[in-house]
Specification:
Layout (H helix, E strand, L loop, with lengths): L1 H14 L4 E7 L2 H16 L4 E6 L4 H8 L5 E6 L16 E4 L13 E4 L14 H12 L7 H10 L8 H9 L3 E7 L8 H6 L13 H11 L12 H14 L6 H4 E9 L2 E4 H13 L3 H8 L3 H27 L3 E3 L2 E7 L4 H12 L9 E8 L2 E8 L7 H15 L6 E5 L2 E7 L3 H18 L1
Parallel strand pairs: 1-2, 1-3, 3-4, 4-5, 10-11
Antiparallel strand pairs: 6-7, 7-8, 9-10, 11-12, 12-14, 13-14
Helix pairs in contact: 1-4, 2-4, 2-5, 2-12, 4-5, 5-6, 5-11, 8-9, 11-12, 11-13, 12-13, 13-14, 15-16
The structure holds manganese (II) ion.
Length: 449
């Protein structure tokens, strides 16, 4: 991979001489940290640049960006591998640092790209958008090694914490202010346990999650001081805590669900749980404050304050959203639940809420959870599965959309995601028609099984 990066760096530096740079990146944590790494790198080179953060690359977004050529150099991070159709008639080169699936046959000599899927050993080189950007940055100057922290945040954002490839391990080794500790994957690991236990939705701990006295009781049993954090625990204390949690989750007895690696990073000069940094960045960006999210990544004090405010509000919204979801009338069927929140829950959090509900013991393993929330004249639909096994959600939604579009050919509906988390967007006026088709599809699937 490093060889390919070197070639890419050379071409990029040559081509961007005396030109301003346009960074176009994805709006999740990995995309934001990618943009932050690139921004810092170009700043250190004293190069002019602007940043554009997008949800995805639609045809018109790309057309707008391409208009900036030849005055500006376009560099895409954590996206674009799936958009090669729109790069078939380039007059100027574009640069891509990405890790998403790619169709090799659509490459051409104007597309300069590093993506581990294109390498001889993709498994060893498996990394994230931010990981790829970091390798690019380090190839430009060894002094950029301090940016590996950002690559680590992107890595956790894209959930690579337990399966570390060779190349990701090198990035971990580059990060001197990082500590990895094995233990209970309670969150965040830096806060007093009585709080972390009470707020723990994943893993969900019956009698403890959402129950202050229950959390205290568990700690009393283990003899662990209430104000200790996971990080403070000795090995012995950690194993006592794991046992106490296991007993309460007796029906969900899968150790791998509650044990894992905790990543602790020194950020803004304090020890932080990387999962929490990642959630904070994601929350800021998805709620429309990607600029604050990027400044936060670059350890700007003012941005930190703003980001924490947004994050606090976001957490409050999630908690009240959970309460609304609990009380709401649901469409329940054999093996599925549809939560049609309409305008009672924001579309920006419906997916996260469904993920949280999918790890609570309210529903049996394999249940399909579908959340729906209004977004102006559209409805956002998010599908999640309870537990680790079950039906292919992307397939269910795709089949639903095909039937739905037969009835509503003018609809814009399009499905994104993968087996265990998928979603789509439909027109608000088609609400009942969509639910009707979706219910039928979910029922057919059950019969097949
Ligand atoms: Mn990514």
């Amino acid at each position: 991979m490093l060889k390919e990066i070197d070639v890419f760096v050379k071409e990029f530096l040559e081509f961007s001489k005396n030109k301003s740079i346009r960074i176009i990146s994805h709006h999740d944590t990995d995309g934001i940290t990618s943009a932050a790494i690139l921004a810092k790198t170009f700043k250190r080179l004293d190069k002019k640049f602007t940043i554009q953060i997008v949800k995805g690359l639609e045809e018109n977004t790309i057309a707008e960006e391409l208009k900036r050529q030849p005055k500006e150099v376009l560099i895409f991070s954590d996206l674009a591998s799936g958009s090669l159709d729109y790069f078939q008639n380039l007059s100027e080169p574009i640069f891509i640092l990405d890790h998403h699936e790619i169709d090799k046959s659509k490459l051409n000599d104007k597309i300069k790209i590093v993506n581990h899927h294109l390498l001889d050993s993709p498994k060893n080189n498996e990394t994230t958008g931010a990981g790829t950007c970091y390798l690019f940055s380090k190839a430009i100057s060894q002094n950029n090694q301090d940016l590996s922290s950002l690559a680590i945040i992107g890595m956790i954002g894209d959930r690579h914490e337990s399966n570390i490839s060779k190349i990701n391990q090198q990035i971990v080794n580059d990060t001197h202010n990082l500590k990895i500790k094995k233990g209970l994957v309670l969150y965040p690991a830096t806060r007093p346990l009585r709080r972390a236990l009470e707020w723990s939705t994943s893993p969900y701990i019956p009698g403890v999650t959402g129950n202050g006295p229950g959390a205290m009781e568990l700690l009393r049993e283990t003899g662990i001081q209430y104000d200790k954090s996971l990080l403070d625990l000795s090995e012995d204390e950690m194993s006592k805590l794991v046992t106490a949690v296991m007993i309460r989750r007796a029906q969900h007895n899968k150790v791998e669900d509650i044990l894992g690696n905790l990543y602790i990073l020194k950020f803004f000069n304090t020890k932080e749980d990387v999962r929490e940094i990642s959630t904070l960045i994601n929350a800021c960006s998805r709620l429309g404050h990607s600029d604050i999210a990027i400044s936060y990544c670059l350890e700007n004090e003012k941005a930190k304050k703003q980001a924490l405010d947004i994050y606090t509000k976001y957490k409050q919204e999630l908690v009240s959203g959970l309460k609304v979801a609990e009380k709401m009338d649901k469409i329940q069927g054999n093996g599925f639940v549809i939560l049609n929140a309409k305008d009672q829950i924001k579309d920006t959090i419906i997916g996260t809420l469904c993920s949280m509900l999918s790890s609570s013991p309210t529903y049996t393993e394999g249940t399909v959870l579908i959340g729906m929330a209004y977004n102006e004249d559209k409805i956002k639909i998010s599908a999640r599965i309870v537990g680790h096994e079950g039906r292919n959600l992307k397939e269910i939604l795709e089949k639903t959309v095909i039937t739905f579009k037969n009835k509503n050919p003018e609809s814009i509906a399009e499905v994104g995601g993968h087996n265990f988390a998928a979603g789509c967007l439909i027109e608000k006026e088609k609400e009942s028609s969509f639910i009707h088709v979706l219910k039928k599809e979910l029922e057919i699937e059950v019969v097949k099984i």
